[in-house]
């Protein structure tokens, strides 16, 4: 125990005070802010999700590099569609929702303020999960309403455990955004959606969004983005390696994202880097 605690002190996760024969350990401000579950900015659930679901798959990194393809077929009892595995139980779904909300507590406000969205009264958050971005949206833009669009099982849990009835400017639409129509809106948010899918699937989704979008409306995309010369940033390369194991998608450069948007009819493409690891892109219909 002492070795573990001293290692945490070296990592600045704990502080130590030595008094005579007593050694007292306690959280640093950093740990209280980001690791204590009671903190509004706690990353506990995000880290647990990665620890339980993703990090163990680095065992297959060498195979992924040698074979040049994802390794999902090697996981025990893994279905063809990765989301069938991730959403295989209510418990798993809630873990994902808690993880996404935790991540959004750090970057959500930066994403929603990268551009002035006050002239978009009707907003649709595609794959909105636990509603963290939706809550940021209604707090920042009092004249907007937002619809969380997600799978029926996700929407059911979001209504019960994540979004209170008092938050009346947040609505829900329970659909599969690949199989079902998306509702009409002035702005569509795709936060960390495109990186999970290959170019063909991204084109399919963006085409559907463009068709449903009101004239003059647009799409707001939040993604980890590679530098154009692929020199970094390091978090983009790390995310790219994670995708090798589970997903069909990839981390894209600005020009690759712009080509997807242009090919599906969007114009006036703008990109901004936030204080977090995410870039935000606004494109108009």
Automatic annotation (TrEMBL):
It holds the Pfam family Methyltransf_2. GO terms for biological process: melatonin biosynthetic process; methylation. It comes from the Eukaryota. SUPFAM superfamilies: S-adenosyl-L-methionine-dependent methyltransferases. Its EC number is 2.1.1.4. Keywords: Melatonin biosynthesis, Methyltransferase, S-adenosyl-L-methionine, Transferase. GO terms for molecular function: acetylserotonin O-methyltransferase activity; protein dimerization activity. Residues 58-267 form the O-methyltransferase C-terminal domain. It is an enzyme of class 2 (transferase). Pathway: Aromatic compound metabolism; melatonin biosynthesis; melatonin from serotonin: step 1/2. InterPro entries: COMT-like, COMT_C, COMT_dimerisation, SAM-dependent_MTases_sf, WH-like_DNA-bd_sf. Catalyzes the transfer of a methyl group onto N-acetylserotonin, producing melatonin (N-acetyl-5-methoxytryptamine). PANTHER family: O-METHYLTRANSFERASE CICE (PTHR43712:SF2), PUTATIVE (AFU_ORTHOLOGUE AFUA_4G14580)-RELATED (PTHR43712). This is Acetylserotonin O-methyltransferase. The gene is LOC129326071.
